[in-house]
């Protein structure tokens, strides 16, 4: 399999594409610039099967409807943030005075207590990682040893917790209980910035010392 990081929009939110040898793919967090993303997918002859959200803040969902309509694919989101898709006051687009409020159609699939998720030939272990937001989810693909962590964990940093529903103590617990237990060579694909590894963050992330 292969994966690609595609920073989109003014906040350079990372959208990720993971694809197999059949050119089937899943997309994570298409936050902005739907036209650019659709053009890239078609140019690389990739066939999206689904959109998976790590969480439903506006900068991670802005391109969702245009992309899922272009490819007629389903959208997955955690139940705690299903209503966020429809409400700018919850997804943050109203809070940040965006020029256009983000209101999406409802999700096709709502994640509840599932421990795994299979889409086509792709199977992920699901980890609820609240703290940055109450419905944050991390998707671990053991075969590729990558975890799509959204805004939970970054290179040398962690997600902000000053937005509605954020909780610093809960975030630190999520990281320690669900992410730092993964193999140390697991690649962490974050919502912003470059990739890192679990081992690197265990050794050097100043926010995780002394827990």
UniProtKB/TrEMBL annotation:
Gene3D superfamilies: Ribonuclease Z/Hydroxyacylglutathione hydrolase-like (3.60.15.10)
Keyword terms, alphabetized: Hydrolase, Metal-binding, Zinc
Required cofactor(s): Zn(2+)
Naturally occurring in which organism (per UniProt): Bacillus salacetis
Domain Metallo-beta-lactamase: 12-192
Protein name according to UniProt: MBL fold metallo-hydrolase
Transmembrane segments: none
InterPro entries named among the record's database cross-references: MBL_Glyoxalase_II, Metallo-B-lactamas, RibonucZ/Hydroxyglut_hydro
Signal peptide: none
Example of a GO MF term: hydrolase activity
């Amino acid at each position: 399999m292969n994966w690609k990081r595609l920073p989109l929009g003014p906040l350079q939110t990372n959208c990720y594409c993971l694809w197999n040898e059949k050119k089937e793919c899943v997309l994570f967090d298409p936050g902005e610039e739907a036209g650019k993303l659709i053009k890239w997918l078609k140019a690389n002859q990739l066939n999206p099967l689904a959109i998976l959200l790590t969480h439903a803040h506006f900068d991670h969902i802005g391109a969702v409807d245009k992309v899922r309509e272009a490819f007629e694919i389903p959208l997955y989101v955690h139940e705690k943030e299903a209503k966020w898709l429809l409400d700018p006051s919850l997804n943050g687009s109203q809070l940040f005075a965006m020029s256009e409020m983000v209101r999406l159609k409802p999700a096709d699939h709502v994640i509840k207590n599932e421990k795994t998720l299979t889409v086509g030939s792709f199977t992920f272990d699901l980890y609820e990682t609240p703290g940055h937001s109450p419905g944050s989810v991390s998707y671990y693909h053991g075969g590729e040893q990558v975890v799509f962590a959204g805004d939970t964990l970054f290179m040398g940093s962690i997600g902000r917790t000053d937005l509605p529903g954020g909780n610093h103590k809960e975030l630190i617990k999520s990281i320690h209980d669900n992410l730092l237990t993964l193999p140390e060579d697991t690649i962490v694909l974050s919502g912003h910035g470059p990739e890192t590894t679990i081992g690197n963050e265990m050794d050097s992330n100043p926010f995780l010392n002394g827990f």
